[in-house]
Amino acid sequence: MEFNPPPADCLLCPRLVAFRRDNQQKFPDFYNGAVAPFGGLDAAVLVVGLAPGLKGANASGRPFTGDFAGVILYSALAANGFAQGTYHARADDGFTLRGVRITNAVRCVPPENKPTPAEAKTCNPFLVKEIAAMPNLKVILSLGLTSHQAVLKTLKLRQADYKFAHGAEHHLPGGLTLIDSYHTSRYNVQTGRLSQAMFDAIVARVKTLVK
């Protein structure tokens, strides 16, 4: 199946469109658009985040690039052989992914980093098509509860049958494995909910599942 991400000027969610236009005035040098996934459709691993950060992916135009969450994520991917190059928090830093693709449940930056359920629902068809277009997909790594819920909705699975928990490993119909992690946000790290070592361990487990 062919996959086309939403256009940068996607108009599907009025609140997000209004927020984008406000940010275009405040931050004219930012990307300020629906952020396309990073990595190839031939990857065996799909990392699903929540949504672009205002001064991260919304600024750089690349998922998890330019904010604290990306430092944790990309450090773990590099340490486990899922990336090449040196991450410099810019879309043009030459950092590339190997066997992994990164996307978001919601493709546009939301106010206060909190998309509404309606916005997540509106954006979900893009995730449906993206997963369907990945012929080698074996593992989905969900970062946070919203991502976990979006993946289950995409696969038409009941939330009650697959509870979110950090480190939870769900074996899904069709042979896919869903692994949950707390989001790599600054808040989660500062409060001690997640550490770099904890997240490295999650990614190391993902690596064993795709060997």
Produce a short descriptive summary.
The chain has 211 residues and is α/β, with parallel strands linked by helices. It contains seven helices and seven strands. The strands form two sheets. Strands 4-1-5-7-6 form a five-stranded mixed sheet, with helices on both faces. A two-stranded antiparallel ribbon has the order 2-3.
**Kindly state the mean pLDDT as a whole number?**
96
Number of helices: 7
User: How many domains, in number, for the residues?
Assistant: 1
- Please state the second-level CATH architecture: 3-Layer(aba) Sandwich
> Going across the major beta sheet, what is the strand order?
4-1-5-7-6
pLDDT under 50 segments (min length 5)?
none
Description:
This protein has 211 residues and is of the alpha/beta class. The chain has one domain (14-209): Uracil-DNA Glycosylase, subunit E. The chain has seven helices and seven strands, in the order αβααβββαβαββαα. It has helices at residues 14-26, 57-60, 68-79, 117-132, 145-154, 186-190, 196-209, and strands at residues 45-49, 83-84, 96-97, 100-104, 139-143, 169-171, 177-181. The strands form two sheets. The chain has a five-stranded mixed beta sheet with strand order 4-1-5-7-6, with helices on both faces. Strands 2-3 form a two-stranded antiparallel sheet. Strand 6 and strand 7 (177-181) form a beta hairpin. Helix 3 (68-79) crosses helix 7 (196-209) and helix 4 packs across helix 5. It is globular.
